Amino acid sequence: MIQTSLFRLLAFASLALLITQPAFGYIGPGAGFAAAGSVMVLLGTFLLAFGIILIWPLKAAVKLVSRRGKGRAKVKRVVVIGLDGFDPKMAAKYRDSMPNFAALEKEGCHSELGTSIPSISPVAWSTFATGVDASRHNIYDFLTRDPCSYMPVLSSTDTRMVPRNINLGFAKVPFGQRAVYKILQKSQPFWKLLGANHVWSSIVRVPITFPPQKFKNGTLLSGMCVPDLQGTQGSFSFYTTDESKLGAATGGQRFRLARRGNSIASNFKGPPGADGISMKCPFEVEMDEEAEQATITIGNESATVGIGEYTPWMEVPFDGVQGIARLRIQRWDAEHISIYVTPINIDPESPAMPISHPFVYSIYLAKMLGKYATLGLAEDTWALNERVIDEQAFLDQSYLIFEERKKQLWDVLEKTKKGFVTVVFDTTDRVSHMFWRYLEPDHPANADKDTENFKDVIPKLYADADGLIGEVREKLGNDPDTLLMVVSDHGFCSFQRGVNLNAWLRDEGYLVLKDGAETSGDWFEKVDWEKTRAFTLGLTGIFINRKGRERLGQVEKGPEMDALCAEIKGKLEALLDPKSGDPAINEIFLTSEVHDGPYADMAPELLVGYHRGFRHSWDCAVGAVSKEIFTDNTKSWSGDHCVDPRLVPGVFWSNRPIDVEDPTLADIAPTVLDLFGVEAPTYMKGRRLFGAGPRGAQPGAASERDASDRSAAQQPAPTTTES
């Protein structure tokens, strides 16, 4: 089947060479990437694939020789289905509507799955991929700070424009610019080790796989942190004639429409061109009022939809680069017109930057299955937070993406009869985030919103996940040589109250604002770094403003910093919510005590383990300092998991019983390697789950597990209940 896949890739590379236009348009640093020369890249891919086929007999002979002396594989195929955010308590609650999970448990096993510290998706899925903790894979959050400027940077990816020079020996001649894409995740994914040992892997949408790393014997479609065509992590567009709906929008942009009878015309905003000005792509909408249908035209493409319906993915061409988007007519009546446009995704059929390995793989999937979402966070949670779309629009979008992912899963299952397959579904996480409030009548996010129409969405979500597993089991049949695992990266809980720890640090004198200011805007606008000792941004930790690391560091590493961390820890663990009197924080973890890897030194010194119901407030996450410490969370994003990891374990099912009682995410990598007869590196932190018991003593191997177990018996009961 692998050889068949190579021939198909080669065929689609050839086809793409004939139909793909070169992307010569320059996309500036603000967008985060430059459009690649598609024809040249595809030509290289064509030649590479052709070369692979020519040398295949030689490689097969080398493979036979190199496999001698290696461990014997215990299975022919391993399939891991990832259900982001799937919660064990909710699964137990809805178990009567989940017969396929029950059958899987009866056939093999079911358990909670220990998550990462911190319990946030980029950290957890990085642990899944590498088999190590955050201090060894270097991902602690979505965001971290630049220690020189204190400004936010993505934790996982460095994408920038750098000068291109011709070196003449005696001089360097400037020759434009080039884009550099660098993944900041350290260690290495276990499928790279499988590939080096001649085991094929098909990897689809595992988070923190952008930019795609090259590896032997496999394909990969990148997941979380793939940008949109503007270079952001997702910027929607909202067009309206209603002046009251205009203004600033978090997570997107709003545009004024001018009505012309039964039609409107406007432009999509694209990435910057060579002149630094955002490129534009015109579109038109013509309404047939009698049929209540709108015809949308972009370039040479048209689609007709009713009000409240999404278009198919439509191509959005700019000068030399192309994206795709879906449009939805929100309102069209005598009074007003409103149109929602998804973030403009990178077109998988004509990718402006690498989003898969090999480069042609995304094109192959698009040709075989149709265009699909490529944005890392594809479900537009901010459009719903901002009430640009409603719950039905968000659900429709989420399930369209769910169906796309299923098609991709069926394709890799068909093509990979031998080797490793993993596909991650995000819908379970995104819907839980946005509909959790329906489970709790007293949730602050319910104010002025519907509380009845979508109260069954999360129960249905779990039933739909069960249906997916039923389809997977049916396609796998009774193959005794295929091992199936279903995992989630973490569980879920309520998010009712936001905590601005920067405001608390200000009140306690650890963070100081300039000129006696009481509050500060985003990204530490008014912070006096020469007087500040601690600060936070993102969702998981508190940084010490440390000498020798931060540009204006104030605290000496050693006894001074240790004493400060202990002091902050003690005070925060006693912090009470004035509204309820409940403690907000279950435990503050000292990074130096729970992690001992080489990248802990750049991490937050304190990791915040909130109680259920609490989380960093929205303004705290972006480095703002508010007047109040505690605020109600009134956004539709009403559920979360950035709490004490012991409170939100993930799930684990398998069609075979395991030999440990407390599996964790870190166990998956060494387990899969062992199943294929590949020895796991000694730096991996996990254990083999099937048949082998512990992998042997390693210094610090149990540090994260110990942190999760430490004083568990003394932990107070969760202060926020869930329906």
Summarize the entry for a quick read.
With 723 residues, the protein is of the alpha+beta class. The strands form eight sheets. It has an eight-stranded mixed beta sheet with strand order 2-32-23-1-22-7-8-21, with helices on both faces.
Features:
single chain, 723 residues, alpha+beta, 8-stranded mixed beta sheet, 5-stranded antiparallel beta sheet, 32 strands, 27% helix, globular, disordered N terminus, disordered C terminus
| Largest beta-sheet details | 8 strands, mixed
Derived structural class: alpha+beta
Write out the strand line-up for the largest beta sheet, numbering strands in chain order.
Answer: 2-32-23-1-22-7-8-21
Broad shape? globular
**How much of the polypeptide forms β-strand, as a percent range?**
15-25%
Helix content: 25-40%
Q: Helical segment tally?
A: 19
Rg for CA atoms: 26 Å
Low-confidence spans: 1-41, 693-723
- How far apart the termini lie comes to 47 Å
Q: What is the residue-averaged pLDDT? A: 88
Number of strands: 32
Structure description:
- With 723 residues, the protein is an alpha+beta fold.
- It has a domain at 495-647.
- 27% of the residues lie in helices and 24% in strands.
- The protein has 19 helices and 32 strands.
- The strands form eight sheets. Strands 2-32-23-1-22-7-8-21 form an eight-stranded mixed sheet, with helices on both faces. It has a five-stranded antiparallel sheet with strand order 11-12-13-14-15, with no helix packed on it.
- A hairpin with a 2-residue loop joins strand 11 (259-260) and strand 12.
- Helix 1 runs antiparallel to helix 2, helix 8 packs parallel to helix 18 and helix 12 runs antiparallel to helix 13 (457-476).
- The longest helix has 25 residues, at 391-415.
- The chain is globular, with a radius of gyration of 26 Å.
- The model is unreliable at 1-41 and 693-723 (pLDDT under 50).
